[in-house]
Each structure stands twice: as structure tokens, then as C-alpha cells.
Amino acid sequence: MACFMDRLRQAQAELAERNAEPWQQKLEAAVRGKDAISTVALMELIGCPKNTASARRIAKVMLSMNFVPLKSRRLVPGGFRSTMGRGWARPIREARNVVPLLHQKPSQPLSTNNGD
Using alpha carbons only, what angle is made at residue 85 by residues 57 and 55, rounded to the nearest 5 degrees? Predict the structure, then answer.
């Protein structure tokens, strides 16, 4: 019985590996040791066509690796005023759940003291 379960787990692992995103390993290797990188640079590093479909596919993988999308002039060589580049950055700190102020209930009722 244990033999069958081992084969089943191995088959599931192989299937998951086969269905995994093929660009995942390439992108992990490309961003290793980098804090920020442009999408165009990623496309050049992994050797994919520079089109919208590739950018969306990269975005899906980068989000799964917990990178943050950004828009910056620093990612473009010689970036000045109208030159804007899009890319990805590692988060500096852990994301926390922030409840917007409009949805928070006040901890103490507001005083309506008008000086009386």
C-alpha cells in the first residue's frame, strides 16, 4: 500500500512540474541578486519576444514570486522627464493588512463638547 502511495505522490509531483510555468526558473535566475529590474531587461535576459503577451506572462510569474510592479525613470538608461520605464522590485518590508480609515469604527466616541 505504501508503495502505491509513493508512486502516486511521485506522479503528482511530475504532473505539477510539467504544468508549472516554464519561465519560472528562468525569471528566478534572472532576478537573483537584483532589487529592481525593468520588464524589457527581463525579456532580453530570458530571450522572449518583446510584446504584450510576454509582458503579461512575466507579470503573472513575478507576482507569484512576490515582486511589486513599479513605474520609474531610473530603470531607463538616460531617463529624463518623459522617459518612463516599467519593471519590478522586491518589497522592502512585509506587506501588512491595512484597513482603510473610512471602514474603521472609532475606538472612542467623538466628543461633541461645544464649550458648554
Answer: 10
pLDDT in the model for residue 2 = 65
Distance of alpha carbon 75 from alpha carbon 73, whole angstroms: 5
Q: How far is CA 69 from the centre of its chain?
A: 6
Give me the sign of the Cα torsion angle 26, 30, 31, 36.
negative
Note whether 60 and 21 are within 8 A (CB).
yes
- Which has the closest alpha carbon to 90: 45, 28, 46? 28
pTM for the predicted model, two decimal places = 0.59
**CB–CB of 85/75 below 8 Å?**
yes
Alpha helices in the chain (DSSP H): 2-19, 23-31, 39-46, 52-64
How high is the mean pLDDT in each 10-residue block of the chain (116 residues)?
Answer: 82 76 86 90 91 92 90 65 77 63 52 56
Residue 36, C-beta contacts closer than 8 angstroms, at least 6 positions apart: 70, 72, 74, 75, 87, 88, 89, 90
